[in-house]
Design a protein that fits this description.
Chain lengths: 498, 274, 314
């Protein structure tokens, strides 16, 4: 018999129906992946099961946890179930911790609260939970505050806090999104281990289908508050589950690009170093950007890749080394990760797109903006719209329009697709590839996602802690990495394996 | 949230009170009204009557006329003081927010330093140089307001300077000044206006305090704070002399704080429903 | 922690140094000749000269400033022109009135304001929240000296419960306490209103943190999550507001002492201002500024002690 049965669960917030009749069932020892784009209602589903929907939300339907109806339960009884029968792990582990309390005391808190254990007894038990969650034994969790441990360690501590009372059901809301790929893989493995070893039911909410698919028994796809497809992971195919299969396909990188004859050098950086608040962020980095070629920079968060992007764009100057064009002045434009934050919220898109243009007649500005919008595949009417009125993918197209309107030589792209839903990513990458070929642009493409790098980059450099550890043609480096760090990245990238 | 929520009530009540205060100031300057500052000792401490709607004070002056004219000094001092504060504070905050270095540190240090001086102490210190009077009150309250506005501007602008569209503007070839005026200032302007509304209320309060202790508006110019000072010894005898100007101050301040609060909720959607 | 302490203390000393220059410049230098002020404009030139020499006014400014500062460091704030006694002993006589007044007001304001703010946030958007909101808005609009006058009118003149003003000295025990009740209430109410609003706002903000939701997911009741997680985090910004408030409270003390005819620092200062007793004005100003700076220093230290993120980064 299923541990958790959700029947026809709906959620209204004001006038809007955010969940529309969700049905789920989950047994102990199982891992279920609940996937979908942002805003599809997958996180809301998890929060509703826990009885913590947003303020003012009205729930209907039923949520049964081993025969107990949770939706009609009184708050007091729900408090007993939370932590004891259901544990939850949140996405952003930094903000999910109370900054004034040590990491370990977070794990001990449920013991003290639910069982009234004393401080020492609670800590003893908490140590066991920390160990089970593979929190490093050499770190004393009871003297470290949340900001003093790494993101991966925080996430392990949070899993320990969620599982310290051995709940039957573990909910995890995007538990690995903020982590780099190597940590991500080991945290996912931990969830699988908890399900099998501790006989828990795990509901894993994520937007990253390939990652979740590595450990989930079942996959459930949500869109606009409804479940559109569900299947056992092994049974996914074009016939049974066309949408899930399509998602897999779009996440899978295209074939590696053939190495072409190389264009002329547009911009060169040699021996570039940079420090940030006394910390070495970049150390002796060199790179070459060529006409009509895309250089991919692969690195995890904190590797110094965004700093390098800003230096290449000329927004900051290197402490040592040189960055410069060959001969004539090189014009560099940039596209940023968060497409909405890249626009002044009070300006129309047209005004923002025209910003890089030198002063000229209004008529000519309008014509150029229209041309740029058409070139990136947007209707010219977008010029009159405001950033909050359009989708993330459209905003990223507009950002590209702004970057190309003044005919730059180099386009720096700082994680341009990582804030976008998987389905949109491919379209934006195609657009960038087209523009590169049409205008002979030199692209400098920064990403943490090896799959993305493989589908757009001609050459790649791999960076770790501010140092370039490997470089070469994309197909060679990603197919047969030589440096141990690159090998670890490739091994931990589900999208590359599929 | 519907239009008739408690918040929009605050907006309209606040705006109404401010309009009333401005109206009082305007009416008091009409030339055909009797000058309320003229002394008629024979008519002192008269109760309200047809001739003197609110009665007269200890010098026989018309209480209604004095209260109306008090609005002039109050508004004048408050508006100029807030203009001084915002005029100096906002540019300082903008500059400090853009630079991440000694300049920003220095500006904010000086700011904290000025903050250590309450407006009253500034008025006492300035008193020897400027002398008592409206100018002293304007300067003292104005100087006190500089760090208030600098902090508001700094706090809001700092987060804006790190946004990507600022980087895009720089890549578009714009210098710091054009970015500050074109992007940053318009985005913080609404917050500055909210702050200014609230500070106007606080400045009226401060002006009343300074005039009450004799550091602000001086006789014969009518001022609410001064009137309260003179009424103090008579409070057992003629409480209306203290109650009327006190109510005038309270309603004026309430008008600005209600309006400021209501505006701040409109400007900052996260605070809506708070 | 040690490094932070050194930095803060040097900051504190620098602030005081700059403040002393400012006070000296504004009070001792800019206005006319204090000797002439004391003797009147018709004084004989040689008497004037003798007095100026006695007061050290004929020495270079830098020497005068150095003398003033080194005097203060030795506890010599100069001599009052009107009372002809050391300024420090004048200030010393007045502090036992002003200090208890300010501290008692702060305590009352905190005792009313913090629970009020917590209550308003916990009962967010109920009638209680709206009632407190309106009430604090009204109290905030009242000038504290007018509030004091109204309190006198009601409790002293109308009901004869409490004295209208004056201070019988601490030797009189209960009578001294009774005479401070109304001034303390008049000072504390507006400050309490500010605290209610600040506390409420800070708590509402922290209540939205994911960490509070995470605590609820671990099974804590709404009340426990508020008290154990949201409240401690909200108190940190509130603490710095309380530090700033002390500065306003001191200024308020000066005015309120005038309402209630209390022989405190504020009365002393005003007499000195009207009589142009500049050493007293300068000395009292320095004491006021020093206490404001000292309080913000203490608040800084407290914040560092409470917030582990600040504690270890140094």
């Amino acid at each position: 018999m299923a541990l958790l049965t959700v029947n026809n669960l709906s959620l209204m917030l004001g006038e809007r129906a955010l969940l529309k009749g969700v049905d789920l069932s989950l047994s102990r020892g199982e891992v279920m992946g609940l996937v979908g784009a942002s805003g599809s209602g997958k996180s809301l589903t998890a929060r509703s099961i826990l009885g913590l929907p947003p303020q003012g939300a009205i729930l209907s339907g039923s949520v049964h946890l081993r025969g107990t109806e949770l939706l009609t339960l009184k708050e007091r009884a729900l408090c007993r179930i939370r932590g004891q029968d259901i544990g939850m792990v949140f996405q952003d582990s930094a903000s999910a911790f109370d900054p004034l309390m040590t990491v370990g005391d977070h794990v001990a808190e449920p013991l003290r609260w639910h069982f009234g254990l004393g401080r020492e007894a609670a800590r003893r038990e908490a140590r066991r939970a920390l160990k089970r969650a593979e929190f490093p034994a050499e770190i004393d969790a009871f003297s470290r505050y949340p900001h003093e441990v790494s993101g991966g360690q925080r996430q392990r501590a949070m899993i320990a806090a969620a599982t310290v009372l051995s709940p039957k059901l573990l909910l995890a809301d995007e538990p690995t999104t903020a982590l780099d790929v190597t940590t991500q893989a080991s945290i996912l493995a931990l969830f699988r281990k908890l399900a099998s070893g501790e006989d828990m039911a795990v509901l894993l909410v994520s937007h990253d289908l390939p990652a979740v698919a590595t450990i989930a028994d079942h996959l459930v796809l949500m869109d606009e508050g409804s479940i559109v497809e569900k299947a056992e992971t092994a049974m996914i195919s074009e016939q049974n589950t066309p949408k899930l299969a399509a998602l897999f396909a779009s996440a899978r990188p295209g074939p590696s690009r053939p190495v072409m004859t190389r264009g002329g050098i547009v911009l060169k950086a040699t021996g570039v170093s940079y420090s940030y608040h006394g910390k070495r962020a970049l150390d002796g980095v060199s790179l070459t950007l060529r006409k009509g070629e895309c250089l991919g920079l692969i690195g995890q968060s904190g590797s110094g890749k965004s700093t390098l992007a800003r230096l290449v764009a000329g927004l900051a100057n290197p402490l040592e080394g040189q960055i410069g064009g060959t001969g004539v002045k090189v014009r560099v434009q940039m596209v940023f990760q968060d497409p909405v934050g890249a626009f002044n919220p009070r300006w129309t898109l047209g005004r923002s797109i025209a910003e890089p243009l030198s002063p000229r007649s209004r008529h000519e500005v309008e014509r150029l903006v229209t041309d740029a919008l058409i070139e990136v595949g947007l209707d010219p009417s977008f010029a009159a719209r405001y950033p909050h009125e359009i989708s993330g993918g459209q905003a990223q197209r507009a950002a590209i329009a702004r970057a190309i309107i003044a005919k730059p030589d180099v386009l720096v792209l700082d994680e341009p697709v990582s804030a976008l839903d998987v389905a949109i990513r491919g379209q934006i990458l195609d657009l960038l590839d087209t523009l590169k070929n049409r205008h002979g642009l030199a692209l400098f493409f920064i990403t943490h996602d090896l799959g993305v790098a493989r589908s757009i980059a001609d050459h790649v450099i791999v960076m770790q802690n501010g140092v370039v550890v490997e470089e070469g043609p994309a197909s060679d480096v990603l197919a047969a990495p030589t440096h141990p760090y690159t090998q670890a990245l490739v091994a931990a990238s589900p999208s590359l394996r599929l | 949230m519907s239009r008739s929520s408690p918040r929009s009530v605050g907006l309209w009540v606040g705006a109404g009170l401010i309009a009333l205060m401005v109206l009082m100031a305007v009416v008091s300057t009409l030339p055909w009204l009797a000058d309320p500052t003229l002394i008629h000792v024979a008519e002192k401490l008269r109760p309200p009557s047809g001739e003197h709607w609110l009665g007269t004070d200890q010098l026989g002056r018309d209480l209604l006329g004095l209260t109306l004219q008090g609005a002039v000094a109050s508004l004048l001092v408050a508006v100029i003081a807030v203009m001084i504060g915002a005029g100096i504070g906002v540019p300082l905050g903008l500059i400090a927010a853009e630079r991440d270095g000694w300049m920003s540190q220095a500006i904010m240090r000086v700011n904290d330093f000025i903050f250590a001086f309450p407006a009253l102490v500034i008025a006492i210190l300035l008193h020897d140089t400027v002398g008592a009077g409206m100018l002293n009150a304007m300067l003292a309250i104005g100087i006190f307001n500089v760090p208030v506005f600098a902090r508001t501007a700094y706090g809001k602008a700092q987060s804006i300077w790190t946004l990507d569209f600022i980087r895009a503007a720089r890549l578009a070839g714009k210098g710091n000044l054009r970015v500050a005026l074109g992007h940053v200032l318009p985005l913080i302007l609404s917050q500055v206006i909210v702050q200014a509304t609230l500070q106007l209320g606080m400045a009226i309060l401060a002006e009343a305090g300074l005039s009450y202790v004799g550091l602000g508006v001086t006789p014969p110019t009518p001022s609410w704070g001064r009137m309260l000072n003179e009424a103090q010894t008579l409070i057992g005898l003629a409480p209306r002399l203290a109650i009327v100007p006190g109510m005038a101050i309270a309603f004026a301040v309430l008008g600005f704080t209600l309006l400021g609060d209501a505006l701040s909720e409109r400007v900052d959607p996260r605070r809506r429903g708070r | 922690m040690g490094q932070v302490l050194v930095r803060r203390v040097s900051g504190l000393l620098a602030t005081l140094a700059v403040a002393s220059v400012l006070v000296f410049a504004l009070i001792e230098v800019l206005p006319g000749d204090p000797a002439e002020l004391m003797l009147g404009t018709d004084a004989r030139a040689d008497t004037l000269q003798a007095l100026r020499h006695e007061m050290g006014l004929d020495r270079p400014l830098l020497i005068q400033y150095a003398g003033w500062v080194s005097g203060m460091l030795r506890g010599d704030f100069g001599t009052s022109h009107t009372y002809h006694v050391p300024v420090l002993s004048l200030i010393g006589e007045r502090l036992p009135v002003s200090l208890p007044l300010a501290i008692a007001s702060l305590v009352l304001a905190v005792a009313l304001g913090l629970p009020g703010g917590v209550l308003a946030a916990a009962r967010h958007q109920t009638w209680l929240d709206r009632y407190l909101r309106l009430k604090t808005q009204i109290v905030l609009a009242l000038p504290n000296f007018w509030l004091g006058m109204l309190l006198v009118f009601i409790f002293a003149i109308y009901w004869h419960w409490l004295p209208a003003g004056g201070f019988p000295g601490w030797g009189s025990g209960l009578a001294a306490m009774r005479s401070l009740i109304l001034p303390v209430v008049a000072l504390a109410l507006p400050q309490a209103a500010i605290l209610v609003r600040v506390m409420r706002q800070a708590l509402l903000e922290t209540l939205e943190d994911t960490s509070v939701m995470a605590a609820r997911a671990r099974g804590l009741s709404p009340r426990a999550a508020l008290l154990h997680h949201a409240l401690p985090n909200a108190l940190i910004p509130v603490l710095s507001v309380m530090g700033l408030q002390f500065s306003f409270l001191l200024a308020g003390t000066i005015i309120i002492e005038n309402v209630f005819y209390l022989p405190g620092l504020g009365r002393l200062m005003f007499q000195a201002v009207t009589q142009r007793d500049l050493p007293v004005v300068a000395g009292a100003s320095m004491v006021l500024v020093a206490s404001v700076v000292a309080v913000s220093f203490l608040v800084d230290l407290a914040t560092h002690a409470l917030d582990p993120r600040l504690r270890r980064r140094a």
